[in-house]
Amino acid sequence: MPTVRPRLRPVSRPHHHVRARPDLPQRVEPETSALVVGGGIAGVTAALVLAERGVKVELLEAAPHLGGRLGTWDRRLADGSEVVVEHGYHGFFRQYYTLRDILRRLDPDLGFLRDVGGYPIASRPSVGWESEDFTALPRTPLLNLVALVLRSPSFKLGELRHVNADEALAMLHYDPVRTYAEHDHRSAAELLDSLGFSDRGRAMLFEVFAHSFFNVEQRYSAAEFLAMCHFYFTANPEGLGMDAPTEDYRTSLWEPFTRLLEKHGATVSTGTRAVALRPDGAHGWAVDVEGEPARHARHLVVTTDVPATRDLVAASPELVAAAPGLARRIAALPSGEPYVVARLFCEGDVDPARAVFTGVTREEVLDSVTLFHRLEGGSARWARERGGSVIELHSYACPSGTPTDDLVAAMRTELAALWPETADLRVIDVEAHRYTNAPGFDPGYHLVRPGVLTDARGLRLAGDWVACDVPSALMERAAVTAVTAANDVLREEGVGPEPMRSIRPRGILAGRPRA
């Protein structure tokens, strides 16, 4: 009998992970209720999908504003000017299909997003490597790899002889089950060591990419790294182009989302801290709130970040007693590395040729630079009035014991080595923060990472740290898990699901024989 070889999967179109069910009711019965804890992308997404279907939703957010890691706040600078400051730059990549479908509730044309214009990777001149930008590659998976090898100075044909082909092809063989079974036990550093790429190829293509997920290579699962290669590059039909809001997140996202939620009957409660979760018998769930009466609802979706979720579950003995396995898994959740965001308000500007966003390689602390005055309206107006600039420096995985001021000083020194003209800028003020709320993806943890559905009936989880079969990461993972949680509520209520698209779930060579 002749051997039937699997065909290459076409990957140029989005994959319909969840399709609409017009044969089912689209709205729930009256009095169906849900509480959503956490007001970032995951919480707002879950609350909105449920409220649109008639669920009585209350969104509880401890901070005085929505946003999570896209939060904003007011700041009076040293020169007396008032500005809106954000948590940090986020790239809205174009294969973030689920997130973009949610954003289209605000504007079907996504007119509040603009093309960032490129994704260059740069190092200081003394390293001797010219910058590279991978956004101009073909959008068709596999062709983009061929073009990369042919165009990039980081790949020389003579050096490619030393590359471990089996390890490199693992990116194209990605499978959400097999890849984790084969690679989750080792670190991304071990994988990168085994690939055999040149030092330049490793630095320009892989090290910057790995750091973008707030994990150092030594603590980052090789399987997670391969999943991210699949999601952002080898199976991404949209290319590496990304967009960003034309105004601050408050103006572009959180104020419009608040109005939309309230239009659909949801209650948005900011400055409302959940302190414990309790099963509430036939009524579903109770959430104890600091200084206020407890809230009660049939369904509960928890979307807080890793540290907040660990603390909330640890303070919920009745939940721990009802679902001890879930409680143990959440207690063991790893955190990512500390990261620092510093926004510099300066007199003077950088070279006009500098990109709006630049990834940085081979520096001790500095990982990216964003020129907000060339990106965002509020920063542009501030800079125009003063002949200045607004420059954000980001360290994705910084040393844990170093004071924030020292890290900011180090980033500024490294920026001057990267872009010498910045040494002459006078910094009027600095808004800098060090955070420890990014998720960790340590080797060996995948099998016990909590998913959206839990063994506590009526309780779902969502966020960028939650396990998920749909290819996704960062903001898209938050949106995907939130829609998945909302869909499970709708399923239980006998209502059709929210449709969801993604890139293809498996690599272009998945299922084909290996050498």
Note the overall shape.
Answer: globular
The percentage helix is 25-40%
Q: What does the main sheet amount to?
A: 7 strands, mixed
What structural class results from the helix and strand content? Answer: alpha+beta
Query: How is the largest sheet built, in terms of strand order?
Result: 9-8-17-18-19-16-20
| Strand composition percent | 15-25%
Q: Quote the distance from N terminus to C terminus.
A: 22 Å
Write down how many β-strands occur, each being a DSSP E stretch of 2 or more residues.
22
Low-confidence stretches: 1-11
Mean pLDDT: 92
Number of helices: 16
Q: If you compute it from the alpha carbons, what radius of gyration comes out, rounded to the nearest whole angstrom?
A: 23 Å
Task: Describe the protein in words.
The protein has helices at 41-52, 97-103, 143-151, 157-160, 165-169, 178-183, 188-195, 199-211, 222-234, 249-263, 306-314, 317-322, 324-331, 377-386, 404-418, 474-492; strands spanning 15-18, 33-37, 56-61, 72-76, 82-86, 92-93, 113-115, 120-122, 132-133, 242-245, 267-270, 274-279, 285-289, 292-297, 299-302, 339-347, 357-360, 368-371, 388-395, 426-435, 459-461, 500-502. By secondary structure, the protein is an alpha+beta fold. Strand 17 and strand 18 (368-371) form a beta hairpin. The longest helix has 19 residues, at 474-492. It starts with 14 loop residues before the first strand and ends in a 13-residue tail after the last strand.
Characteristic key phrases:
five-stranded parallel sheet, alpha+beta, 16 helices, disordered N terminus, single chain, seven-stranded mixed sheet, 515 residues
